[in-house]
Amino acid sequence: MDDLDAQLAEMQNMLSKVVPDTERKTQITQAGAKVLKSNLEKTTRQKHYRKGEHKHLADNVVSQAKDIDNIKNGNSIVGFNYDKTRKIDWGVRAMFLNNGTSHHLVGDHFVDEVVNNSKADIFKAMVDEYQHTGGGN
Fold first, then answer.
1. Which residues are registered as beta bridge partners of 82?
2. Which of 24, 59, 100, 118 yields a CA-CA distance of 20 to 30 A from 18?
3. What is the CA radius of gyration of the chain?
4. What is the C-alpha separation between 38 and 87, in angstroms, rounded?
5. Cβ neighbours of residue 118 under 8 Å, at least 6 residues apart?
6. How far apart are CA 126 and CA 129, in angstroms?
7. Cα(70)–Cα(129) distance, integer angstroms
8. Residue-wise over 91-111: b if at least 16 C-beta within 10 A, else e?
9. Could you give the 3-state DSSP secondary structure of residue 27?
10. Judging by beta carbons within 10 Å of its beta carbon (0-12, 13-18, 19+), is residue 46 exposed, middle or buried?
11. Is 62 in contact with 78 (CB distance < 8 Å)?
12. Which 8-state DSSP code applies to residue 56?
């Protein structure tokens, strides 16, 4: 029985070296989120930039080191901000531009394209961060 306990302890020790804890996972997913955020800002500026007195959609791309339910579990998300002071939901505006509306606006799927076109770069950034934070030893 002691032999099995020793083997399980060794296996747990080996796994703890390669499976990231919440803090390391957060660092890794934030590296990917940074890439997506940058690409989304750039594409939004190129395709949907309007000059004016108000902030632009591209200025409201945000990233957070929490999941969609605001729980810190190692996940990171990228999306559009909600401006509480002016009550502007930039995510809804982006959704209309991305998907279109039923009557007047034809969507160009710019968010979907950015996500799909960024997958390789996001993965590379996350792998680099994983290796940088001591994973894969």
1. 89
2. 118
3. 20
4. 24
5. 35, 36, 39
6. 5
7. 23
8. beebeebbeeeeeeeeeeebb
9. helix
10. exposed
11. yes
12. P
Measure the N-to-C terminal CA separation of the chain; round to a whole number of Å.
Answer: 29
d(C-alpha 130, C-alpha 121), whole Å: 14
Which of 36, 123, 29 lies closest to 78 in space, CA to CA? 36
pTM > 0.90: yes or no: no
The whole-angstrom separation of Cα 128 and Cα 131 is 5
Q: What is the pLDDT of residues 21-78, one digit of tens each?
A: 899 999 999 999 999 999 999 999 999 887 776 778 999 999 999 999 999 999 999 9
Phi, psi at residue 99, to the nearest 5°?
-95, -20
101: tokens are 């509306």
**pLDDT 10s digits, 2-17:** 788 888 888 888 887 7
The residue whose two tokens read 């994973």 is 135
Name the nearest CA neighbour of 41 among 21, 61, 24.
61
Do residues 130 and 23 lie in contact, with contact meaning Cβ atoms separated by under 8 Å?
Answer: no
